[in-house]
Amino acid sequence: MSSAGVLLVAMLAAGCALGPPPVTTLRIAYPYEMVTVDPHAHADMVTEAVLAAVYEGLVHFEPGLQVQPWLADSWTTPDDTTWILHIREGVRFHDGTMLEPADVVASISRARASKVMGHQLDDIDQLRVIDEVARTVEITTARPAPLLLTRLEAVAVVPRSFDPANPVGTGPYQWRAGSIQGPIQLQRWDGYWRGAPDFEEVTIRFVTILEELADLLHENELDVVASVTVSYFRDHEPQDDWRLVASPAVITTYLGLNVTQSPFDDLRVRKAIDLAIDRRQLVADIFPEGTARAARSLVPPEIFGYSPGHRLHDADPVRAREVLAEVALPTGTTLYLNHIERYAEVAESISASLIAVGLETETRVVSIEEFYRGLEEGTNQLFLFSWTFGVADASPFLDTIVHRRDSERGLGSFNGAGLSDPGLDVLIDEAAHEPRSAIRLERLQQTLAMLEAIAVYLPLYQPSTLALVHNGFVLEAFAGSVIRPQDVRRVYGR
Predict the structure, then answer these.
(1) Topology of 251-462 in CATH?
(2) pTM (predicted TM-score)
(3) Which of 151, 165, 192, 282 places its Cα 20 to 30 Å from the Cα of 265?
């Protein structure tokens, strides 16, 4: 055999000894489509998870931890209404240009003009670059804004000449091709300031039909399913090379009651519904052990504003029937519970509990578009929804879900219950702008106690994020409710 032939045999033998070549592409599925590719024009968790691979914010937040420096590597607060941010050096956008303080000012200004997230930044009075060389940006607010840093986390930093049709950020992956309907292709950004990510490419699919998901898994077309329902896990035979990963997330699922519609305008009816629901039994019946806990308060214990004194009562169907007997609802009254597909089992459980105390209830599966339209227009009667506490503070939840609708300020945008209580609004506003932590906590606890008393949003359970992960891949700890591409790592040598 020639020397070249010997060399080839040796190389092949070495390759066999080392095993298959390393994985260079990540194939990930999400449960529904994106709503936009504009990072400043949405409040959607799947869209956020995908775009988080491309764009980054000034700071980074994880529940239970302090705000972490990111594109802003330090900051000072000379007084209650002034923030001075130092912009990190050596960061490049995907088009090769350097990140400058002027880009930060342009990005915040663009976000402030957004109908979706502008209200989060409406306390900003002035915004300017102090010194290009020193890389400092000054933000002044009209009044104290203790949550400003956490609100800035959601602001994607983009180039001054940004065009959302050409996604360019500073994240670990750069956009190569795709649309909001998918599929999407991302490419590793070798110039990433924190070091290049594991995969050369990421392919993203949006799989809304469970049968299609099962086929893709069977055909080995996916590596990670970023979010899966417990019903899917229970109804499909697990495969040896896949595992279910439950990651704790600070999420609460609620039953909303629209107080603008009869009979929910009667507090007694709302209290009876609350009494009818056995949260512990609901969790035990639906969720695998350790993947959810019954919610006993409006916000989880990890959230600033929580008080141990706000513990909700246990189920009492006997008392619920007694209360409803006092109301004497008209014969034939039917309650309609709207929900998206992933809450089907929960909706049936709630419906059974209400029927058991004499409230005829029908569940209705609606599309995501119809459901959100119902929240925005206040047309749902009963409705199931989840809130992800992306910030360990109750204020964003209260601003969005509880405050009366105020389109100019962007408050109450998802107040599907139609709640309008001036006293609550005053407390919500005071808490959001109180710089003294002890008084902020007192205001938030007072607000949540008032909200608990009127039984408009009933907390049900706090679920873990469930994902399916193929052998050879691992997940890093992640803070959100849906896995981001950069949360996935490969097992080297596979």
Answers:
(1) Dipeptide-binding Protein; domain 3 (3.10.105)
(2) 0.78
(3) 282
